[in-house]
Amino acid sequence: MQNWQNLAYLGASVLMIYTFMGLAHPRTAMRANLIGALGMTIAILATFVQIDVWPLVLIGIPLGSLIGAILALRIRMTGMPQMVALLNGFGGLASVLVAGAYLIGQPSVDLQTNVATAASGFIGAVTFWGSLVAWDKLEEFLLKGGPILFPGRHVVNVILILLVIGLSFALVMDPTRTSLYWWLCLVSSLLGIGLTIPIGGADMPVVIALLNSYSGLAAAATGFVLKNNMLIIAGSLVGASGVILTAIMCKAMNRSLANVMFAGVGSEVTTGPKADDVYAGKIKATSPEEIAMVLDGASRVVIVPGYGMAVAQAQHAVKTLATLLEKRGVTVDYAIHPVAGRMPGHMNILLAEADVAYDKLLEMDVINPSFPQTDVAIVIGANDVVNPLARTDPTSPIAGMPILDVDRAKTVIMIKRSLSPGFAGIPNPLFAAPNCLMFFSDGKNAINDIISAVKES
Amino acid sequence: MEAFITSLTVFVLAIFVGFEVITKVPPTLHTPLTSGSNAISGITIVGALIAAGSSAVVGGPKIAGGYTLAEILGLFAVVFAMINVVGGFLVTHRMLAMFKRKD
Predict the structure, then answer these.
(1) How many Cα atoms occupy the beta-carbon half-sphere of A416 within 13 Å?
(2) Dihedral angle, C-alpha B27, B29, B34, B40, nearest 10 °
(3) In Å, how far from its chain's centre is CA A303?
(4) CA B47 to CA B35: how far, in whole Å?
């Protein structure tokens, strides 16, 4: 029986590896996801051979499935960052509970298992509370979305880490004192909150990717507790995925992970030019009619979406405008900055929802060389990722960050509600550039007004 | 110790496989990658099921309704892991359905 179960687990592991392989292309991705679900089903069924007390299992599975299904079917595409954050957290919490149950029900004498138990509790609790804070910041339920810096936070976090180490050590030495485990989880919970609360706004993609990685590592640690290789394989795949995404996000901002996590960027800016000096007398406000005229002579248009498009839910209007322009023989592409939005790939999901073909969504490195041949760049709800200060001002908080070179297009149309700075808190000289027209409006209304004006022209 | 070394071997090799495979995922699929890998991290469901329903593996004194504390913790773990699994795969499916070419 044991051998059959292990073979089934091996099969499930292979299917999960295949899931990640299939995600390499949009064409195979949907099938890959279904295969992953099949692997998970096999894993669950194979575990049933060990079950002899059924009631709780038969309550838990349908209840969890129902809640999961409701969440997944009701969430709107604009709410996806919150959903991902929340799911990360539940994975972490499950690891905390499983390791705790094993500690109580099957006290282990070997050192490795005790270390793995402490690791499951620690990583799981950090993941759960970190994710709840991330969810809350995205939802803006209790806390604001930006960074929240409390005085002495570094000291508090260091003390919490020392407590975690001390409690883990005590637990590993004497696992019969199960209360130590719950203390460890409590302190780790505080640490999860303490580490996540100072990060916010445009740094959220990094937080989401990092928590994703943690949820995988928590599962892998639980695998060590259970001595189950399938959990270890699946957990480390997820861990690796999160680490890769984290690295990509950090690189796209030219910042180290330590800087993202601890510097509290986005709260205040002390260096660089003042907004009034940059903008004084140089801002050209425009109208839908003028934009329609500019678009009339264009043969290539690039749309640059940012978080503002998600907030305004303007993706469908953007697609309508693009279709209208394409019917008039204009080439329309989309330029996607890796950290645009609040999670990795956020803009791609929103535009896919609006039926934009994925091969029109171009990555930064691909589209940047073509901006000088672009007649009009329409920037909707993006700011820092198109700020030329990243190239020119070495003292700026975004210095060295790779940006979309929209300033090199013949005309730039910035759709923005005001001249307010982006997350980095610095002015954007692009707004004052001779080739830039500012259209002050809400994203969705702006695009709809442009659509009407183009139709009339 | 031997079992641990085997597990550690699997862990290290799986991380290498993960890096190799996941670097090939294009940026356009980074959100489905995050939510799909989320669903897969719900693999803890296996441990949750054993905790909730396998008296041979996880025991302890009974506390409420004839169930042990470990089993009740297991029940909560089953619920949260299943939310993760079903919610993760379903939401990923919804997203990927939007990526199908409509031509």
Answers:
(1) 23
(2) -130
(3) 21
(4) 21
A275-456 fold: Rossmann fold (3.40.50)
pLDDT tens for residues B73-92? 999 999 999 999 999 999 99
The residues spanned by each domain of chain A are 75-262, 275-456
The whole-angstrom separation of Cα B86 and Cα B97 is 16
Residue B14 has pLDDT above 60, yes or no: yes
Which residues of B, range 17-46, sit inside 8 Å of A by Cβ? 17-19, 21-46
**Given this model, what pLDDT does residue A139 score?**
87
Q: Do the Cβ atoms of B60 and A352 come within 8 Å?
A: no
* B67: enclosing H helix or E strand: strand B67-68
Residues of chain A with pLDDT under 50: none
Strand order across the A376-380 sheet: A361-363, A331-336, A300-305, A376-380, A411-416, A436-440
Nearest-5° angle of CA A350, CA A355, CA A358? Answer: 75
Answer yes or no: do A106 and B57 touch at CB < 8 A: yes
- Give per-residue pLDDT as tens, A153-165: 899 999 999 999 9
CA distances from A443 to A7, A244, A306, A360, A450 (A): 54, 32, 10, 21, 11
Report the residue from A25, A101, A244 with minimal CB separation from B74.
A101
Say which residue the tokens 């140089």 belong to.
A282
Interface membership of B63 toward A (CB under 8 Å): no
Annotated catalytic residues of A are 384
Question: CA distances (Å), A204 to each of A84, A139, A258, A447, in order?
Answer: 12, 12, 14, 27
CA atoms within 13 Å, Cβ hemisphere of A395: 5
User: What pLDDT is stored for residue A264 in this prediction?
Assistant: 73
**Cα A221 to Cα A237: distance, rounded to the nearest angstrom:** 13
Give percent above pLDDT 90 in chain B. 78
